[in-house]
Specification:
By secondary structure, the protein is of the alpha/beta class. The protein has 49 helices and 37 strands. The longest helix is centred in the middle third of the chain and has 33 residues, at 661-693. The chain is globular.
């Protein structure tokens, strides 16, 4: 079990173990099914699960299991794939095989050895060829009914009836009956009988699915009943036993709207024809279902009418059953030996053997031969599959020629096996190729950052029709396999099922989507794909897209006059800067040497550029290589990357870059650095070569020798300037770094010892003579990001993003005005215009990739927000945005990555389209809008910020909206037009393509354009252009209005559906009338059912049959429509009067039926029929003096004076004024003080900023500012308390498909800052169900402590919530618990007048 909380894992394991025991498999039996090497791990897992069950199992399982009988037999069906849906008793080959198999199973089950078994030829035979003269087309053969086809069903049914007659008669005469056990009070225990005939229920179900199933079922029960009533010699079953058999069939089949009572009607007819007795209890249950469930008795006429239209058929059948003259006997069903299923998990077993633990002794119809076995040295018995197969083939009986001829004539898979030499006895039914048991377990990742090659599973989908965007998706595919080789501990390969040389299967999946879900749970994985990479960020939640390079390796280097720069793939500093981004697995020893060379070369370059005596010249004498990440290398890499990107960008943007002195100076400095880096790489590479070729071990001498050899060209700082025979401090550092590499490389026979040497030599050789190398080599095994061929594939993907083709639209044509006098002339001109065909034109656009963007530096600023990778060295420049796209060589790419929250959006895997993970969007789409926002000077933004706060806010709104547009069902031409409008800030003169009849398409586009974000004047103008471009009829617009411009949830009256269809809208209708009546669906099932009706062409779901809705379902539907702006849910006739007000505010009541309470203005209005139906049934009389008169109702002031006078208490007696006889005080002179806090902020901050961990439940009415204040505190908590804060919405629909404990564990399990304490903020706590609240507090009880604090925010609470808090308080727990020092608090607050004035003053709405 590789996912889920511990309780969920135990529950699934308990279910599996229960079924194993119910099937009669003991632990030794299961252990024998495993390989000897897997038995120890299975035993340990079995023991751990039983220990966990003893602690928490009984309490949790009793909530999920139901006490009662389990009349389930072991039904073994040896059928091929595809035969399960084949009907029985049909004139086909497959049907003959399946029917014969089932008939033989019944003969075997009921011990009918005297009957001849069936073979397929008995049911279907080959027809003789038709002569050519008869039809003129040649000889043709077909299939005919076999000799036993017509009599097979009746023969077997009668034989089964005889067997049951003998068993029931023997049971009636027995001293200790087993099938029908007589109890006290006329009760009978028939659990054994139900278990015995359970296989007949499956056989009858197959008869029903066959042709003429009604007649076959009637034949079956008629033959069985006639055998029961046959007058034979010997004892006969009692009436109670015969009635018990009828009752057992009634339990197995039942009267449901699915079967419409067909089986029970056929059985009742057969019993009536054979004059057999039935159970009085069964007839009473039939009557109750008829009159109380499916139908309703009319008191006036006495007839029974169906409650629903769909219940009409079953009501008619029940009426026929009740109309039969059936004989009844006193019989009451009672199961005495029922047992709680969870108790099966006890190690000691059960005290009594329940019936469903007894096997039915089924024998395999195709027995598997005994396997050859041999003993290993340890004594364990092993089997060779090849020997098994050989023995099975040798022991199989020879295939009869008639049988081979039959199946050869009929065709099918068996003919191939028969012709290849395998007989029918070895039909591959009993020889299964099972997967390795280890493949079902969790992959044991050898490294915390595994590299997984998945180029055949995940792809970037782009093309000419995709304007400035591409989709990242999981390809549709089946049965991928995760392979792993011991030679590469940290490398895995995910590919479709097939052979992989030298690799073992780690895990197999059913679909590519399942494989992606498994990879997504790995710890910081790296996915190596075709031309690009996916890297999990440090928080283990966000994925980062990494391309190898932004430029084609074949492009010429950057040249400016006599200055030229090498390509970055030939340099050393990108390897130091980004090696962890794609997990090159560099050894620490080799990496430290390369870092020393990079830092030294940069220091030499800076010293020459600034001058040796300049104060800006960095020191070249201190290197903190051995103290973790060195400050020198961090600074050098950051400056190198920043300067390289600035130079390349400025050189491409300027028309005459040679005139820019600053650009020329920076370019010269970078060129000088590259020369120094290459010289140092040559020196060190020659040292390694001499050590290897000359077997020299004097490192100091080699460093001094090679440094002096290059002294004439460059002064290598590894020797002293004054005394060149002595090593400098840098020389000694280099010597110390090379010693462990050289000494380990001397160990023979261990490949790990030469790893650092090989990596260092490859890196230095690529830097020294990279352009002259005859063949590129990978710097790390299985990682091709440094090869030019891989970079070219990545550049090809980028160019497809920059290149787009879209259809050019013609400008609107001039339509001249005319009147009736020149219609003829105009018609002739129109005809001539239509006759000329206008050729279609396509426009090709190429986006520039070297443009300057305002948010590029903002995303790479370490102070811009939380970093996706905490360590800067090895992960490139700091990345503070989840939308950034990186390259291995640390170039700036003009792309955004917008990931889709698949759980919230309910994005599912499709067998045709796969699974969309997100979109790559070109920055040109938002460049002008963000640049305009950067130039804006809004109120509240300091001038020093340069408008970046507004830029960040606007981009956070636009990118999710663009993702909504791209994932919508709009055609590519419409998406292109919307993206072009965004690119040009609405300055697009040509309107989008739209046909008059396509109302649904225009509606989708209009809904999306209406949700276009706004934060600046340019964004507002863009939204107006987008919205006004679509022609949606006014009659349609009234159905697509959104409450508060957000929610698309409507409450409507019954006539609304027809009005929507009259407008041409495609509406899916879901009627829950039956499910509500049967109470067969919960909120989660109804929610998934409703949203499943949405499709790419249907945006409206019309729900009927729900008189009321729970708040959680109402909230889920409203949030779903918020996340999908083009989808709407219409609830017909739903009463929301009892829902929470914050949920009612999300509903649109424009088409809702009128509320009768709004029409009440006087006492007469209360007496109307419409109001009387909505009023409570009880009434309370009010005193006449407390009823205001007509004059008091005229003015509000007079009405208030009336109540103040009549309800004012007497200051002396405390009684009401004017009522001297009143003895009780109903109103006090002063209102009692409220126990709720007028301002929760100080108390909450004391708890959160304290030293002790805490659990806080914050409760108040909506609008008190609970969530707003927690958001305002987030910055202080992260800065002062160093909290790692995580938020979760308790009303999220993620809980529909995922356990709460699993969601919470994933929420707080991010790796953002493992050393800091985590703070979980769970909003909308009151929307959780009681089961979820119990699960939450169990999880909190286990996690709360020094590493976790929890804040629960709710709008309301109840007594159970207070009980849960009391149970978790330290005083109620024993000593030694982790919660002894935790503080548990309940803060109940109210909307005080002071707090309201503060909020109004902050918003500028203070009353004047």
């Amino acid at each position: 079990f590789d996912h889920g909380a511990e309780s969920q894992r135990q529950f699934v394991a308990a279910c599996i173990m229960c079924w194993c025991k119910a099937a009669g498999f003991s632990f030794p039996d299961l252990l024998e099914c495993l390989r000897p090497e897997d038995q120890e791990s299975f035993t340990r897992l079995w023991t751990e699960l039983h220990e966990a069950y003893r602690r928490t199992g009984p309490t949790s399982l009793r909530r999920m299991y139901v006490r009662g009988p389990l009349p389930t037999g072991i039904d073994v069906r040896w059928v091929d794939e595809g035969i399960a849906d084949v009907p029985i008793f049909a004139r086909t080959r497959d049907s003959a095989v399946l029917t014969a198999q089932w008939l033989n199973m019944l003969l075997l089950h009921f011990g009918l050895a005297e009957h001849k078994p069936f073979v397929p030829e008995d049911l279907v035979c080959v027809a003789p060829p038709v002569p050519a003269a008869a039809n003129g087309t040649g000889a043709v053969s077909g299939l005919l009914d076999g000799p036993r086809m017509d009599s097979a069903l009746k023969e077997v049914s009668y034989a089964v009836g005889e067997s049951l007659r003998r068993d029931l008669a023997a049971d009636a005469q027995a001293q200790a009956p087993a099938l029908v056990v007589s109890l006290q009070g006329g009760k009978y225990d028939t659990l054994q009988l139900v278990t015995r005939i359970a296989v007949l229920a499956d056989f009858v179900a197959l008869l029903r699915s066959s042709s003429a199933g009604d007649a076959k079922i009637g034949t079956f029960f008629a033959a069985l009943s006639s055998a029961l009533a046959a007058d034979e010699k010997g004892p006969s079953p009692s009436d109670a036993h015969v009635a018990a058999l009828f009752d057992a069939f009634f339990l197995l089949h039942g009267l449901t709207s699915e079967n419409e009572g067909l089986e029970i009607e056929a059985l009742a007819n057969a019993y009536e024809a054979s004059n057999l007795s039935v159970s009085a209890q069964t007839l009473e249950e039939v009557r109750w279902l008829h009159e109380n469930y499916y139908g309703r008795r009319d008191k006036a006429t006495g007839s029974v009418k169906s409650r629903l239209e769909r219940f009409g058929a079953i009501c008619d059948r029940i009426s026929k059953i009740r109309g039969l003259p059936l004989q009844s006997v006193a019989f009451q069903r009672h199961f005495t030996k029922t047992q709680f299923v969870g108790e099966l998990l006890n190690d000691a077993g059960t005290s009594t053997s329940p019936p469903y633990l007894q096997q039915l002794n089924f024998q395999l119809l195709c027995s598997q031969p005994a396997r050859l076995s041999r003993k290993t040295q340890s004594g364990a018995v092993t089997r060779d599959p090849e020997e098994d197969l050989a023995e099975a083939e040798s022991s199989s009986p020879p295939v009869q020629s008639e049988q081979v001829a039959f199946f050869t004539e009929v065709g099918g898979e068996f003919a191939q096996r028969a012709s290849s030499g395998r007989g029918a006895a070895f039909r591959n039914f009993s020889h299964w190729d099972l997967h390795d048991p280890s493949s079902t377990g969790l992959v044991d990742w050898q490294e915390p950052c595994p590299v997984i090659s998945a180029s055949q599973v995940i792809e970037i989908e782009s093309g000419p029709s995709s304007y400035l965007h591409a989709a990242i998706r999981v390809r549709p595919g089946l049965q991928p396999v995760l392979w792993h080789s011991e030679k590469s501990p940290s490398f895995y390969r995910l590919q479709p099922a097939g052979k992989s040389d030298g690799a073992e299967i780690c895990k197999a999946f059913s679909t590519n989507s399942e494989a992606w879900q498994f990879i997504d749970r790995a710890q910081s994985p790296v996915l190596a794909l075709d031309g690009w990479y996916l890297r999990k960020s440090a928080d283990n939640m966000s994925w980062v897209v990494v391309f190898p390079s932004a430029k084609d390796p074949a492009d010429p280097p950057l040249t400016l006059g006599d200055l030229s720069l090498r390509q970055r793939r030939f340099l050393l500093w990108p390897l130091c800067h980004s090696h962890n981004l794609v997990n090159l697995s560099f050894s620490q020893e080799a990496l430290q040497v390369v870092q020393l060379l990079v830092t030294t070369a940069w220091e030499m370059c800076c010293k020459e550029a600034f001058g040796a005596s300049s104060k800006q010249a960095p020191s070249c004498e201190r290197f903190d290589i051995f103290d973790g990440p060195a400050t020198g290398i961090e600074k050098a890499l950051h400056e190198l990357s920043t300067m390289s990107n600035e130079v390349e960008q400025m050189a491409s943007l300027q028309a005459l870059p040679e005139s820019d002195e600053e650009l020329v100076a920076q370019l010269r400095q970078l060129q000088k650095y590259q020369q120094y880096e290459r010289h140092l790489a040559e020196v060190l590479l020659r040292i390694l070569w001499k050590m290897k070729s000359q077997q020299r071990d004097d490192l100091g001498g080699l460093i001094r020798e090679e440094s002096l050899r290059r002294w004439a060209t460059v002064q290598v700082p590894f020797v002293e300037n004054n005394d060149r025979q002595e090593l400098s401090s840098l020389g000694h550092v280099l010597q110390r770094l090379l010693v462990p590499i050289a000494t380990k490389a001397g160990i023979v026979g261990s490949p790990m010892t030469t790893r650092a040497w090989t990596q260092l030599e490859l890196m230095l050789e690529a830097c020294y003579r990279g352009e002259q190398l005859p063949r590129e080599r990978c710097l790390a095994k299985h990682v091709h990001v440094t090869k030019s061929s891989f970079a070219q594939r990545g550049v090809g993907i980028l160019r497809s993003l920059y290149h787009a083709e879209h259809e050019s639209r013609r400008a609107p044509t001039v339509q001249p005005f005319s009147d009736s006098e020149d219609e003829d002339a105009l018609d002739g001109g129109a005809k001539s215009t239509r006759g000329a065909e206008i050729s279609q034109r396509w426009q090709v656009s190429e986006a520039r990739s070297d443009k300057a963007y305002v948010d590029t530096q903002m995303d790479r600023d370490p102070a811009g927000g939380s970093l996706l990778f905490q360590r800067q060295v090895g992960f490139g420049r700091p990345l503070s945005s989840r939308h950034g796209v990186m390259t291995f060589y640390d170039e700036d790419l003009p792309l955004y990555f917008v990931a889709l929250d698949r759980q919230r959006l309910k994005v599912n895997y499709s067998s045709s389209d796969g699974l969309c993970l997100g979109y790559l969007v070109h920055k040109n789409v938002l460049a002008e809008l963000l640049q305009d926002a950067n130039r804006s000077r809004c109120v509240g933004i300091a001038s020093s910020d340069g408008g970046l706060q507004l830029v960040r806010s606007l981009r956070m709104k636009f990118l999710p909206w663009i993702a909504d547009v791209l994932r919508s069902p709009l055609p590519s031409e419409t998406k292109t037009w919307i993206l072009r409008c965004c690119e040009r800030m609405g300055m697009v003169a040509v309107a989008p393509y739209q046909e008059r009849g396509h109302v649904n398409l225009a509606m989708i586009a209009y809904c999306l354009c209406r949700c276009c974000p706004a934060g600046t004047e340019a964004a507002l103008f863009l939204r107006s252009v987008l919205t006004n471009a679509w022609h949606v009829p006014a009659e349609v617009k009234q159905f697509i209005e959104r409450k508060s411009d957000v929610y698309g949830l409507y409450v409507v009256k019954p006539s609304t559906l027809q009005r929507m269809r009259d407008q041409g809208l495609r509406v899916a209708v879901r009627n829950f009338e039956r499910e509500v009546w049967q109470r067969s669906l919960n909120n989660s099932a109804m929610y998934l059912d409703i949203i499943s009706h949405f499709s790419s062409y249907c945006c409206f779901v019309y729900v009927r049959g729900l008189p009321k809705l729970d708040d959680i379902l109402l909230k889920w539907l409203a949030e779903y429509t918020r996340l999908h702006p083009w989808r709407f849910v219409f609830l017909e006739g739903v009463d929301t009067s009892f829902n929470f007000p914050e949920n009612r505010d999300r509903c649109n009541f424009r088409f809702a039926p009128a509320n009768p309470l709004h029409s009440v203005w006087s006492m007469e209005d209360l007496q109307t029929d419409a109001v009387a139906e909505a009023r409570p049934s009880h009434t309370v009389p009010y005193p006449v003096r407390l009823q205001p008169g007509p004059d008091d109702l005229q003015e509000p002031r007079r009405l208030l004076q009336f109540f103040a006078r009549q309800f004012a208490p007497d200051s002396s007696t405390g009684s009401l004024a004017g009522d001297a006889g009143q003895k009780e005080t109903l109103f006090s002179p002063e209102p009692p003080p409220s126990s709720y806090s007028p301002d929760f902020r100080s108390e909450l901050e004391d708890l959160l900023f304290g030293d002790l961990p805490c659990l806080v439940l914050l409760v108040s009415a909506p609008g008190a500012g609970k969530t707003h204040h927690m958001a305002a505190l987030r910055g202080r908590l992260e800065e002062e308390m160093q909290f790692d804060i995580h938020e979760f919405d308790g009303s999220s629909d993620i809980l529909v498909t995922t356990a709460l404990a699993e969601v919470l564990q994933r929420t707080v399990a991010s790796q953002g800052n493992t050393s800091s304490q985590k703070l979980l903020i769970l909003d909308e706590y009151h929307m959780l169900s009681d089961e979820h609240k119990d699960e939450l507090f169990e999880w909190v009880r286990a996690k709360l402590g020094p590493e976790l604090r929890v804040v629960l925010i709710a709008n309301r609470s109840d007594s159970k919530d207070r009980e849960r808090l009391e149970q978790i308080r330290p005083s109620t727990l024993g000593s030694g618990t982790a919660l002894q020092q935790a503080r548990v608090a309940l803060i109940q607050t109210r909307l005080s007048r002071r707090r309201i004035e503060q909020v109004m003053e902050a918003r500028g709405n203070l009353e004047r």
